[in-house]
Every structure is written in C-alpha cells, then in structure tokens.
TrEMBL record:
It is an enzyme of class 2 (transferase). It comes from Echeneis naucrates. It is a multi-pass membrane protein. The gene is zdhhc16b. This is Palmitoyltransferase. The keyword Manganese does not apply. Keywords: Acyltransferase, Membrane, Transferase, Transmembrane, Transmembrane helix. InterPro entries: Palmitoyltrfase_DHHC (IPR001594), PFA4/ZDH16/20/ERF2-like (IPR039859). One of its GO terms (molecular function) is protein-cysteine S-palmitoyltransferase activity. It is found in: Membrane. Its EC number is 2.3.1.225. Belongs to the DHHC palmitoyltransferase family. PANTHER family: PALMITOYLTRANSFERASE ZDHHC16.
Length: 365
C-alpha cells in the first residue's frame, strides 16, 4: 500500500510545475491526478503478481477456446455416428458384393483364409472401438488428497498426479492423458490407451485388407462406370467403340458404385489412419504420450541450453514400453491379450509411476 501511494505521488503532476511553471493550469493537474488514482484503483481490482503474457493471451482467447471446446464436444457425437455408419456400410458392401465373388471364384483354401482374416479383423475393430468409447480414461480421486502429485489443477482444484493433465473438453483431469479424441468422443488416458491404439491398428489393417481384396473388383467397376459415362457422351457405340458395350442392370450399377465407394473409402482411411497409428507407435516406443511429446521437446531445448541432456523418466526401453501398454506379463499374452479381444486392466493405477532413475533433478543427467 505504501508503495502504491508513493507511486501515485510520483505520477501526480506537480502543482504549477514548480516556481517557473506558472503557465500550467491547476485544473489540468487535478484531472491528471484523478486519472492516476482511477488507474490505480482499476489495477488494484485485478492485479496478480503471477500475471504474464501467457495469462493475458489465455484470457483474450478464452471465448474462442470455449466455442472450440463446445463444438468439439458436440461434434464428438456426430463423429462417433459417422464412424459407426461408415464401418457398417463397408461391412454391408463386403457381405453383399465382395464375399460372394471371393466364394464363387477363389479356391477353397483362399476362401477359408478370407473368411477367417476378414472376420477376425471385424471382431477386433468392433471390440476395440466399443471399449475405447465406453471405457473411462481414469481420473484422479477427488476425495483422497494424499496421493503423489506434481501440481494442483487450477480448474478442478485437486492434486494432479504425474502424467495427469486437464481436458478442457471433458472438463476433468485425466490420468496419463494422451489426447481428447473426437472420433471416440472420449479422452484417451491410462485405462483406454490400449483400446485406442488397438482400434487404430486393426482399423488400418482392416482397411488395407478391404482395399487389397476389392482391388480387382474396383478396377472392373471403374471400367464399367467409365464405359457407361462415355456411352452417355457418345450415344452411338460405333462412334467410339467398334463393338457395342453391354447394358448394365440397376443391380450391377449399384454393385459397381458400391465397390468404388468401398475402395476409395478404405484406401483413404488406410493412408490417413495408418500415418496416425505409426505416429502413436513411435510415441509408445519412446514412452511418451502426445501431451508429453510437446513438454519433453521444450524441456530438451531448455536443458540443451544449459549443457544438459534430457531423459524421459517414463521410458523403460522399447519392448518394455509395449509390454506396459498391452499389459503383457508372459509370452502367451501376446496372443491372448493383443491378437485376441481382451478387457484386462493396464498395469498400475495411473497415479503412482516408477521412474527409471532418481536424481536431484530427475529430468537431467
Ligand atoms: Zn483438472
Ligand atoms: Zn477429454
């Protein structure tokens, strides 16, 4: 308070500007003093020693964040419906047009292989998508404040265990938060990270399988559609072709269009989701989540400037990181818990984390 008063006194213009300042009107000085007092009063209402440019930017962009969060929350439901609808349409097209062709034209052993592989991928995709959307990612306990924590969440006003971050869309703290996924309408965290990754992996494999299996039918359908289109431009077959092209029935035209839709959709998803899956596989190998990737990168630069090397305390070695994610404790688990549907819980509670080393500064060596 004493400092504030001194500041005011300094800011207050001197009456008359001293002996030689007789030209300055007294009213002007009084108005300036009043303005200084008003500014101080306003500043005292919202002054915070922790204010910085980041806080100011956060405040300015708060309405935009609010809109984005709400739109994402609302779009989450639409995205889940879209994934369900598109996956169902692909499965229906495969059952109606691809499988009958495979059964009627392929040798018996190839038919068996297609039936087994196709259905295995379908079961894995449906199981992991259902589990990823319905399994809560895990939240820190609100009633127990005696948990290992690294900070306090400013939004939830609860202790934040290591690797926990606040999701502004779900408006809750999430254990080992990876990201908020609008395609799942759920946060990806400690308890559903495995389901999320397995869904991405099996969906990519399923799309690659469909794309390869329907390639010949796609080329045939594309050729047929092209011929039909050219015939509309050149009505007389002789004007373009030496021999007349066959007339396609409504069922055949529908089949052609469905196969083209299937191939374009599955190929596009295979490329896009394949890239995302690969990125998450790299992160898992490094023992990082998507959030930690940004934090660790900043920390690496900060420590490099100090001549130190950053080491991720949650990196347990590539194979061990994968074992931790899939909850693999013995060799048979790779088959029963990774290649087959399994709803086992991940290792650990997501609150306590073993670090690979303990030093005064755990981030640096
Ligand atoms: Zn929180
Ligand atoms: Zn969320």
């Amino acid at each position: 308070m004493r400092l504030a008063l001194r500041w005011c006194r300094l800011c207050r213009p001197q009456r008359g500007g001293g002996r030689g300042g007789g030209n300055k009107p007294w009213m002007n000085g009084k108005l300036l003093a009043l303005w200084s007092y008003t500014k101080l009063l306003l500043k005292s209402l919202y002054y915070n020693s922790l204010n910085n440019s980041d806080t100011l930017l956060d405040c300015v962009f708060e309405p935009i964040y609010w809109i984005v969060d709400n739109v994402t929350r609302w779009f989450g439901v639409v995205f889940v419906c879209l994934v369900t609808l598109l996956t169902t349409s692909v499965v229906v097209i495969v059952y109606l047009f691809i499988l009958p062709t495979i059964i009627s034209t392929y040798p018996a052993h190839w038919v068996v292989w297609h039936l087994c592989c196709g259905h295995w991928l379908l079961i894995m995709v449906v199981f992991h998508y259902y589990k990823a959307t319905t399994t809560p990612p895990g939240h820190p306990p609100k009633d127990n404040i005696h948990i290992p924590s690294v900070s306090i969440c400013k939004k939830c006003i609860t202790p934040k265990p290591p690797r926990t971050h606040h999701c502004s869309i779900c408006n809750v703290c999430v254990l080992k938060m990876d990201h908020h996924c609008p395609w799942l309408n759920n946060c990806v965290g400690h308890f559903n990270h495995r389901y999320f990754f397995s869904f991405c992996l099996y969906m990519t494999l399923g799309c690659i399988y469909c794309s390869i299996s329907s390639r010949d039918l796609f080329l045939e359908a594309y050729g047929a559609i092209e011929v039909r289109h050219l015939r509309q431009i050149f009505p007389s077959p002789q004007s373009y072709y030496q021999t007349p092209s066959p007339d396609y029935s409504f069922k055949e035209t529908t089949a052609h269009k469905s196969v083209i839709f299937l191939w374009v959709l599955t190929s596009s998803v295979a490329v896009a989701l394949g890239g995302l899956t690969l990125w998450h596989a790299i992160l898992i190998s490094r023992g990082e989540t998507s959030v930690e990737r940004h934090i660790n990168r900043k920390e690496t630069i900060r420590l490099k400037e100090k001549g130190k090397v950053f080491r991720n305390p949650y990196h347990r070695g590539k194979v061990n990181n994968w074992k931790l994610l899939f909850g693999v404790e013995k060799r048979s688990h790779w088959i029963t818990q990774v290649l087959l549907p399994s709803s086992h819980l991940p290792m650990g509670d997501g609150i306590m984390w073993d670090c690979t080393f303990t030093r005064r500064d755990p981030m640096a060596i």
